[in-house]
Write the structure tokens for this entry.
Amino acid sequence: MTRFLLLAAGALALGGCSAAGPRPSAASAPVNAGEDRPAPDTMRWLYGSGEAAAASIQTWRQIADHAIAVARRPGIPQSVPQGLPDAAGGIGTPSCETDDGGIKPLAAVFDVDETVLLNTGYEYWQALSGKPFDPAEWAQWSEQGAGIAHPVPGAVTGLRRLRDAGITVIFNTNRNTQNAAGTVAALEAAGAGPAVHLETLFLRGDDAMGGRKDGRRARIAQSYCVIAMAGDNLGDFADVFNADESAIAARRAMVARGTYAQLWGNGWFLMPNPVYGAWQEGTLDEVFPPTRAGSLRQATSRNEGTALDIACTAPAWA
């Protein structure tokens, strides 16, 4: 496979590249090949809109404000709840005290992709080529994307504020451990570094849990008092949320009620990502479940003057 990253970089600089397949020739790449091709709506929003930039800056400011306020509180700090392998219900609150009675250093833990870095080069390649996700191409991007992956708006300032306040910044990402050097380089090139593998950077393959992050969270909590966490997927907070990604209503209800609902903006911070993620499940009726009455009626079109009678059968759980 050719180094498609370099071609994607050229495409971003020139306004286009060849969409002929995974091995385009730089010599044959037409300038402005993507000029008239509409981008997917989700990519328009995340990578091109002012609204997305505003939402990201807002969230990063909230992260830094919250963590710095916690760091300044007197007394023994308390860790934020987080997914842990042996915790009852999948989520626990590790102690911030060391075995000898001291206090662990404070830390904030972040996912990388679409939380700290925007993978604009890779996503441009996917949109232009029309190819689905390819693990080999993603690994190539992870290794070679330094200087092309942009920082999420607000991330550089937010991370600087945390570090200036004495809070250790730790990255916990599902990029593969084989791509540690490329990930470090991408973070540093974007102004989000430094990062040191197995110290302040943890990746998929660092333990035997694959893409589940609870084991890595437990390892981090052994050395640090984690006072803030941020990511673009519920699995960035606890694996239990993604135990059944197809259980649309139950997954949503789990994070929107009770104890967990109190954590959003109060130690847990979710970054917007409508492009990809575990949320990509659900039929129309699962996303818009019918009411207990079993029907939605009289949706009226004023222009045509006709009433639509939409019959829906309530599912068993309604």
